[in-house]
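== Folding the chain ==

***
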Amino acid sequence: MKLGEKLSQCWLMIQGNLFPWLQEELGPLTEKQQQLITVLELSRVEEFIPSYHGYVGRPQDDRCAIARSFIAKAVYNMGTTSQLLDRLGCDKVLRRICGWEKVSDIPSESTFSRAFSEFSSSELAHLRS
């Protein structure tokens, strides 16, 4: 299948199935939220995050949700992690898109910084398959 055909199929699935379902769950979506959801759906960032389940010691905060937030920070053109955390704290829809139900579920700024550093050193921003 050609790349254009595959992207067209993905877009139809996102627009025809995913957006309506999410709007039913979350309410109306802004254009920026739709843009973020599209980037997340196409990038499938979760597939590039190593799993640490089953290891001894304190479990790492959900790296997939933090990775989605890493992408949200870029899509929303936020310059600092502090701006991202402020937005996650007051924007319920963004918070849920990223993977957290409650404000209290969001990790600390230092956890975000460590995770973002890991993502940067692992070249997560240059997703490869």
About this structure: Residues 3-47+61-126 form one domain.
